[in-house]
Specification:
The complex is a heterodimer of chains A (about 280) and B (about 350). In chain A, about 75% of the residues lie in helices and about 0% in strands. In chain A, about 35% of the residues are buried. Chain B has about 350 residues and is an alpha+beta fold. Chain B contains nine helices and 21 strands. In chain B, strand 13 and strand 14 form a beta hairpin. Classes of the chains: A mainly alpha (about 280), B alpha+beta (about 350). Chains A and B meet through helix 8 and helix 9 of A and helix 1, strand 7 and helix 4 of B.
Amino acid sequence: MRRTLTAALVFAAAFVALAFLFVPVLAIFVHVPPSRLVAQLSSPVVTDALVVTLKTTLVAQALILLLGTPTAYLLASRRFRGRSLLVALVELPLVLPPAVAGIGLIAAFGRFGLLGPQLRAAGVTIGFTQAAVVLAVAFVASPLYVRQAIATFEAVDPNVVAASRTLGAGPVKTFFRVVLPLARSGLAAGEALSFARGLGEFGATIMFAGSLQGVTQTLPLAIYAQFDVVGGFDTALAMSALLVLVSAALLVSLKVTPRWQPSRPTSRFLFARSLSS
Amino acid sequence: MAALSADFALPLRTFALELSLVVERTVALVGPSGAGKTSALHVVAGLVQPSRGRVALDGEVWLDTARGVRRPPEERSVGLVFQEYALFPHLSVRRNVAYAGRGRADELLERFRLSHLADARPGELSGGERQRVALARALAREPAVLLLDEPLAALDAHTRAEVRGELSELLGGLDLPTLLVTHDYEDAAALADEVGVVVEGSLRQLAPPAELVARPRDAFVASLTGANLLHGNATAARELTEVVLTSGERLFSTDTARGEVGVVVYPWEVAIAREPAHDSALNVVRGEVGSVVELGNRVRVRVGPVTAEVTAASAARLELARGGVAYATFKATGTRLVPLAG
C-alpha cells in the first residue's frame, strides 16, 4: 500500500515537472494560429532583428573559434603554474549574472571605461554599436566553447600526437592533420552550445549595446521590446517560435553528433612542459 | 653502418634515469616496468628533454644540453614504434603508412602483407596487423635509427611467438641501429645482439645475451635471465667455495666469493632424480615436487627452492606429475656466485 503511494507521488512529481517545462514552449506555438505567426515574420522589426542577430552571431562565433581554439589547445597541452587559475577564469563568465557581465563590459570598453581613452584616441567607439553586441555575445558564449575544447584536446591520445612528430610533422602540421580531425566532433559540440547561448544573449547586450532597431536589436531584445508595444505580442510570439525551432535544431544536432572515443593513453601530456622553458 | 650514441640523465618521479650507450646494431633494454625504459626511447626521439645529456647519430648532434642543441622530434631521423602502436585512428592503413612520405607506401604495404587492408581503419585490425602497420609507418620515413617500445607486449601469446620470429628476421635485414625496450628477457635475447638490464633508471649490465647468462653481474640480472637464485653464506672450502643456504642446505661452487651471496644456477643445468644419486654432481637439494609446467617438449619442474628444466620424456618416466619427494642435482661448475646487493 505504502509502496504504491510512493510510486504515485513520484509519478505525480515527474508529471508536474515535465508539464511545467513543456507547456510554455507549447504555448508559444498554440497561443495564436500558425498562419498569423508566419505573417508576423515579415514585419520590419522582425527582419531587422534577424539581420542584426545573424551578423553579430556570425562575427562573434568566428572570433570565438579563431581565438578560442588556440587558447584551449594551449591550456590543454601545457602544464604550468597558474594553469588551473586561468581555466577557472575562462569559466567565470558562465556563472556570472548577465547584468554583471554588461557592467563589466561598460567599465572596460565604454566611453569612460578602463580602455576608453585608448579606444577614443584610436577613433573607435564600441558602446551602443554592433561591435558592442559582438563583444557581449563573445563574452558570455565563449566559455562554453573553450571549456569543451580544452576537454576535447585533453582526450586526444598524446602518443598519437607524438607519433606524428616522430614521423616528421612539425607542431602546426600535427595540429591540422592529427589533433584537429580527432577533436572535430568535440569542438563541434562545444560550438553548438556556444552558438545557442550567444543566440539567446540578452542582459549584457541590452546594457552594453542598447536596443536600437536595425543596429543593436537582436531577436531576444526585439521580443522584449515588442512585448511592450500595443499589438506587438504576436510579433514577440513569432520571433520566440523561431528561436525555439533554431534552439531545438541545435540540440538535436548535439545529440546526433558522434563522439570520438579515443583509446585512453597510459602516459599523458608527452609534451607537457612549462611555458617558461 | 651509422651508430647512435646516447648519454643522458632524466629525472623521473622517484629516481633519475641515467643511461650511456652506443647502439650500432640491435640493443635491447630489459627491466621491470617503471624502470624508465620507455623514457629512454622518448629522450632519443626528442619527445622528452633530459636535464643533462648528449644524443648523436655519428657526427650529427640531436641533443647536447651543454651546447644548447635541442632538435625537435621531426628533425631527428628516427622511426619510433609505440607500445600501443599509436596509429592514427582517423586515417586508413594506407594513409597511416604514407603519413611520413607517399613514396614508399605501396612497397611497404606489400612487404608487410598489408595491401589487402590498405583501406581499413586501425580499429578494424588485429594486434599483429596493427604492429605491422606501425612498423611500416615508421620505416616509411626511411629513418636512420629504429626505436621499438615493447614491440611484442600488446600481442596475445600465440601471435607473439610468430611475430617475434618475423621481427627478428626483419631487424636482421634492415641494417639499422635499433634500440628496443621490453620487460621480457626472452624477447630481448631473441631480438637483440646486446641486452642492457635497466633497474630503477640505471644500466646494471650491458652484454650479449650469452654473456649475461654466463656471467650475470648481480642477483637481479641473474634472476631476470631466468636463473635460480638461492641466498646463502659463502666460505672457503679447500679449492671450492661452500655456501650454506638460508634453508640449511650446503652447496659448492667453483666461483670464489665470501659472505652473503646469491647462488645462480640455470634450470637446464639441474637434473632431477627420485633417489639420491651417486655421480659427479656435488650439489643435491631434496624437496617436494611443486609446480610442473609443460613448455613444448620441455617441462619446468620445481623441486623445493630449485626450478629445473627436463625433457617431457624424463618428466613422464619420473612421474613428476604425481608430486612426492625428488632430488635436484647440479655440478659445482654449473653455478655462479653473485653479489646480492640491489
